[in-house]
Write a structure and sequence with these properties.
Rossmann fold; N-(1-d-carboxylethyl)-l-norvaline Dehydrogenase, domain 2; 291 residues; 3-stranded mixed beta sheet; alpha/beta; 49% helix
């Protein structure tokens, strides 16, 4: 039986996983963390988090396991590696962006006797650090009182979608949101690229948009990154490329034409090939130029 303050295992302590683990620890949860690159988990020990050498060690004695990894195959690999430490009835909260691989993960959870909660998040490095992610969650009502305090620790709000037995509703919502993210990112990048080549002062473009109906926080942050040349990674080009691919895979299966996302995926690929893959996704801007 889980307690009021369950023991949490966090598998994956990258750009999102590390602040998620810290915020859980800062909110009084006992947190055990693992990462493929051990130094990333070990960096969390100063926050009172136990750095585990293996996924199995991390999940041993945990009531809830959070997977915060890059994609479906890596999530499945980690949870399979954790199997020796898992017990029947452990709650598995899947936080990663996995697209329709969520179905395979849910099947694995059932076969392993785990209670599966699909809970991808909207937000990048800074919202994660501030505990301001938006959590999209789908899972059994019976475990919601247990996991909601976790979501409150890492996010500003939680949107529960789907009913009991609805597999992947939250991950599919995340695909829809990422369609919008791709459009916004490249819209800003292409506008600023054209401004540069037309010798238009880019600040004039920013000034026209600011305060009007086209203004939003995302526009401001990504345009600021391009204008300053500061591509400190909040969410990388390579990860954005992966997310665009997941959208395209879902669209192909359902017969929806996604011309904008397809072009956006190609732009992220081009920027990655140019050497910008580990930079912030705003560096998709460079795809507008030949080199």
């Amino acid at each position: 039986m889980t307690t009021a303050q369950p023991v949490i295992a966090v598998l994956g302590t990258g750009i999102i996983g590390a602040p998620v683990a810290r915020n859980l620890s800062n909110n009084g949860f006992t947190v055990r963390a693992w990462n493929r690159t051990a130094s990333k988990a070990e960096a969390l020990t100063a926050d009172g988090i136990h750095a585990a050498a293996t996924p199995a060690e991390a999940v041993t004695g945990a009531d809830v396991v959070l997977t915060v990894l890059n994609d479906g195959p890596r999530v499945l690999e980690a949870i399979e590696a954790a199997a020796p430490g898992l017990t029947e009835g452990t709650i598995w909260v899947q936080v990663s962006t996995v697209g329709e691989a969520v179905d395979e993960l849910a099947i694995h959870a059932t076969e392993a006797g785990l209670i599966f909660v699909d809970a991808p998040v909207q937000g990048t490095r800074r919202p994660a650090e501030l505990g301001k992610l938006v959590v999209m969650a789908a899972g059994p009502t019976s475990v919601r009182p247990t996991v909601q305090p976790l979501f409150d620790a890492i996010g500003s709000r939680t949107l529960w979608v789907g009913e009991d037995g609805t597999t992947g509703a939250a991950s599919r919502l995340k695909l829809v949101l990422n369609t919008w993210v791709v459009a916004l990112t490249h819209g800003v990048g292409e506008a600023l690229a054209l401004a540069k080549q037309l010798q238009v002062d880019p600040q004039h473009f920013i000034d026209v948009v600011t305060g009007g109906p086209m203004d939003n926080g995302y526009f401001r942050s990504k345009s600021a990154a391009v204008l300053s040349g500061d591509y400190t990674t909040s969410f990388s080009v390579d990860n954005a490329k992966k997310d665009a691919r997941l959208v395209l895979e879902a669209a192909q299966r359902t017969g929806v034409r996604m011309d904008t996302v397809e072009a956006g995926h190609q732009r992220f690929q081009r920027a990655s090939t140019q050497g910008h893959g580990d930079k912030d996704m705003a560096a998709g801007y460079f795809a507008s130029f030949d080199a």
